[in-house]
Write a structure and sequence with these properties.
Number of helices: 3
Number of strands: 6
Helix content: 10-25%
CATH class: Mainly Beta
CATH topology: OB fold (Dihydrolipoamide Acetyltransferase, E2P)
Distance between the termini: 42 Å
Radius of gyration: 17 Å
Strand order of the largest sheet: 2-3-4-6-5
Strand content: over 45%
Shape: globular
Structural class: alpha/beta
Low-confidence stretches: none
Length: 122
């Protein structure tokens, strides 16, 4: 019986699939806030920390740009008061509703996939 249970637990990851989202579409994601260092080549002017969400589970993001599998998504928020609060709440669990997910396009984009924040819940 013990061997059967171990075999079942070993095979479980094979049957679990990541949730799939699509570029340009709304998404609901959850995880913990994490400060990440900017990868911008001009560190003197544009360096420093950015905020991202370390996801509870890996997701797949698909679209014309191609499929990306990720567990880390940079947050983009036009509400600067809310955005500044993210840094103070690093490590806290957060549910995020994204207006849309988009692929990194500029040197300011540190993760492969980014989220335009619509709403958050701690």
């Amino acid at each position: 019986m013990k061997k059967i249970m171990i075999a079942i637990l070993a095979l479980t990851p094979l049957f679990s699939h990541a949730q799939t989202f699509y570029y340009g579409k709304p998404a609901s994601i959850s995880g913990k806030l994490l400060k990440i260092k900017s990868l911008h080549p001009n560190q003197e002017t544009f360096g420093g920390n950015q905020i991202a969400l370390a996801l509870d589970e890996r997701i797949d993001v698909d679209g014309e740009e191609g499929l990306v599998k990720t567990k880390l998504i940079q947050l983009v928020d036009t509400n600067m008061q809310r955005y500044n609060q993210y840094f103070k709440k690093e490590g806290k669990a957060l549910d995020v509703r994204c207006k849309e997910l988009f692929r990194a396009e500029t040197a300011h984009h540190t993760t492969k996939v980014l989220c335009f924040v619509d709403a958050v819940k701690y």
